[in-house]
Amino acid sequence: MAAGGSTAAALDAWIVFEDEAGFSMTPPIARTWARRGCTPVIRVRGRSRRRVSIAALTCYKPGQRSRLIYRPRRDDGRRDGRKSFAWSDYRDLLQVAHQQLGGPIVLVWDNLNVHLDARLRSWIAGRDWLTVHQLPSYAPDLNPVGVWGLLRRGWLSNVAFTSPDHLIQTVRRGLRTIQYRSDLIDGCLTGTGLSLSLTTPRVQAQ
After folding, report:
1. What CATH number did the domain enclosing 57 receive?
2. Residue 116 and residue 95: Cα distance in Å, rounded?
3. Using an 8 Å Cβ cutoff, are 178 and 156 in contact?
4. Is pLDDT at 80 greater than 50 in this prediction?
């Protein structure tokens, strides 16, 4: 994080973390209230293969309100259809982030094969406003896109989704609420133990 932090300070840039998650029609289970001896039962409409995938960016800059920017991708349920994000989806998401943030971006993400796609790397190389750092392998605890846990414990828990549209609407409603709660976005960063105290080193004569 030190390298990313010094780069961001020098460029007066946003530090942006990216992560993806998928949500299916089967709801996450959370604790709830019930009469003693009466375990609640959530009845769902079979085991639907349809799901929604979300790529999200948590964006931080000292002195600025933290932001959440996301892009959904809906699975049509076909066996031959693409279920994950393509390199062009990440390109479009980063372009939107640059427009919304209005400044340089230092992007931190994992070693997902699509992130390493030659076409995406070529596109990144041509953007002077974008600097990319890879997270170490097998280090998900360093990525503060913890909005997935907020969704699963909150808006999505114990919900009997009636259709893929119902699932997508619920996910969007939760993400929109988080977008207005910068304290929740800040909490995701705090949970990693990382810090945004980006200061320029002082040179002192000996």
Report:
1. 3.30.420.10
2. 18
3. no
4. no
What does the pLDDT average to over 19-47? 64
In a domain, 202, yes or no: no
Q: How far is CA 15 from the centre of its chain?
A: 13
pLDDT tens figures, 117-133: 999 999 999 999 999 99
Domains in the chain: how many in total?
A: 1
Compute CA 64 distance to the chain's CA centroid, rounded to the nearest angstrom.
19
Residue 204 lies in a domain: no
Residue 38 counted as domain residue? no
Beta strands in 25-129 (DSSP E): 51-60, 67-74, 105-109
- Read off the pLDDT of residues 160-204 as tens digits, 9 standing for 90 and up: 777 788 888 888 999 999 999 999 888 888 877 776 654 433 444
Question: What is the span of the domain harbouring residue 108?
Answer: 2-24+46-190
Separation of alpha carbons 91 and 9, rounded Å: 24
> What is the Cα 2 distance to its own chain's centre?
21
Residue 165 C-alpha from the chain's centroid: 21
